[in-house]
Specification:
By secondary structure, the chain is α/β, with parallel strands linked by helices. The chain has one domain: Spore Coat Polysaccharide Biosynthesis Protein SpsA, Chain A. It is 34% helix and 15% strand. The strands form three sheets. The protein has a six-stranded mixed sheet, sandwiched between helices. Strands 4-8 form a two-stranded antiparallel ribbon.
């Protein structure tokens, strides 16, 4: 899982903004386009985490709080770990976390409408806010990510794919509004931005995403593929007994259990995810 020192150093850089933005920089040129579309008050509250071939280029460093710790990553840490850095940093500030795909570009408002809708409106009681951008433009209140039983993102899903599906399924188990159920719809806010195609990363970012292997892990974890899950705890573990060694989570909320670094590495090998 993400090292506490990484979160501490990133939090110091950002201060305590009402909204923290995090971008896993898979395709550098698209990340630069997104950063250049940001208003200063947005870019100064943004963490860019290097993944794949995206390095700390001046176009990003000049306007963003490029996470100092991200320079230390010699390899692609993956989207889930990138979002976890943002989630834990947002938790410290007590604000919102906005997870952005680098395919997003903001309109003339430069993303300032995010600040208005999330920091000054009444959607904070719901914890999750949907936007016109689809999942990659959703904002999730950090208190739910960190303390309300959902947990962080599962870093076994590497380098990308299904990490958000896994989190949303767990959010549903925790009783939060679910995009699959109209009974408890998310609050909706229109944001002045465009969401480009997000199925681009494998070629341009130099990263191979083995969707079959990742899907196999998801199905094993939840007793079926997306939409046909049968388990309410990871791998169908009995919630009345202690989880096995190598798992972290709240025993009162067993769906929040996440594998530790060593266990995650073992699961990636088992399901042939990654190199």
């Amino acid at each position: 899982m993400v090292d506490a020192e990484i979160v501490e150093s990133t939090a110091r850089e950002l201060g305590h903004p009402p909204v923290v933005f995090v971008i896993p920089s898979l395709v550098h040129k698209r990340t630069v386009a997104l950063v250049e579309s940001m208003a200063p008050e947005i870019s100064h509250a943004t963490i860019v985490v290097r993944t794949a071939t995206a390095d700390a280029h001046p176009q990003i460093r000049g306007v963003c709080q490029y996470s100092a710790s991200s320079d230390e990553f010699e390899s692609n840490i993956g989207v889930a770990a990138s979002w976890n850095i943002g989630a834990l940093t947002a938790r410290r500030s007590g604000g919102w976390l906005v997870m952005l795909s680098s395919a997003v570009t903001f309109g003339p408002a430069g993303g300032t409408d995010y600040l208005f809708h999330l920091a000054e409106s009444d959607v904070t009681d719901a914890g999750i806010c949907a936007t016109n951008l689809g999942w990659h433009g959703n904002a999730i209140h950090s208190r739910h990510l960190a303390t309300d039983g959902v947990g962080l993102f599962d870093e076994v899903f590497w380098p990308a794919e299904l990490e958000e599906t896994d989190w949303l399924f767990r959010a549903g188990l925790a009783g939060l509004p679910s995009p699959r159920e109209n009974k408890r719809p998310w609050p909706y806010r229109e944001i002045d931005a465009d969401q480009g195609p997000h199925n681009h990363g494998e070629q341009e970012g130099g990263v191979h995403i083995d969707r079959r292997a990742i899907g196999d892990y998801y199905a094993a974890k939840w007793g079926g593929p997306q939409g046909s899950e049968t388990f309410e705890v990871p791998f169908g573990m009995n919630p009345d007994r202690l989880p096995p060694d190598g798992w972290l989570g709240d025993l009162k909320h067993p769906w929040s259990w996440l594998p530790t670094d060593g266990r995650a590495a073992g699961l990636r090998r088992e399901f042939k995810i990654g190199p």
